[in-house]
């Protein structure tokens, strides 16, 4: 069976302007290659500045790679075909509060992707909005709420609903649990795992939280300063890390667990 997503030698070079009196800094993402199957979760881990979020932006089309190619179901994704990407690869951001427009209702937030990307009638869009709210554990009545009327956990559920509403094949989540308190975080993790089982989604999860990574991921990509230093099955990475960098990350996680 062919993979859902194939990333082949994708690289990226970005010049970061640091201000008038500082020299520009060049960030280089070295060629990245991996595959993702339907119903599988791949976690991308590494310290800040390792290139995790840049890779996420390349996958969803927010940035264009310098070289390489990305294939979905064997078909090469074209960067000038925004609709192709919007329908199939969706993103959940870390700060759901900032990604939700405070001036419009949740129903309007969820309706906008449908209006822009589908031929559904207003009645069909309304039905889809209510169906998606139920899917993430919200009520149809929540479509009339505004952002400030929700808890942090509910805001993240709406962010997930917005990602799901176009029936994508892949969800890319960049630190989706970092801003949540532990109890809400646990509920949201369980929700995402249930949605993945029920919908057969491919899931790419970017995180510093190795506890959650170990709990939900099938495979791991370890990044350092724009390079993939190691990749493999989750259990293998945690139990038999090959690189010193990966070993340091795992030992730091285990030390934190022993303190708690």
Characterization of this structure:
Helix 4 crosses helix 5 and helix 6 runs parallel beside helix 7. The radius of gyration is 19 Å and the shape is globular. Helices cover 41% and strands 25% of the residues. A hairpin with a 2-residue loop joins strand 4 and strand 5. The longest helix is centred in the C-terminal third of the chain and has 18 residues. The protein has one domain: P-loop containing nucleotide triphosphate hydrolases (Rossmann fold), CATH 3.40.50. It has 260 residues and is an alpha/beta fold. The chain has a six-stranded mixed sheet, with helices on both faces. It has a four-stranded antiparallel sheet with strand order 2-1-4-5, with helices on one face. InterPro entries: AAA+_ATPase, ABC_transp_ATP-bind, ABC_transporter-like_ATP-bd, P-loop_NTPase.
- Percent of residues in β-strands: 15-25%
The major β-sheet equals: 6 strands, mixed
**What's the total number of strands?**
10
How would you write the strand order of the largest sheet?
6-7-8-3-9-10
State Rg.
Answer: 19 Å
Head-to-tail CA distance between termini: 43 Å
Domain count: 1
Q: Which structural category do the helix and sheet elements fall into?
A: alpha/beta
CATH architecture field: 3-Layer(aba) Sandwich
Q: What are the segments in which pLDDT stays under 50 over at least 5 consecutive residues?
A: none
Structural shape:
globular
CATH domain class name: Alpha Beta
Report the CATH topology name.
Rossmann fold
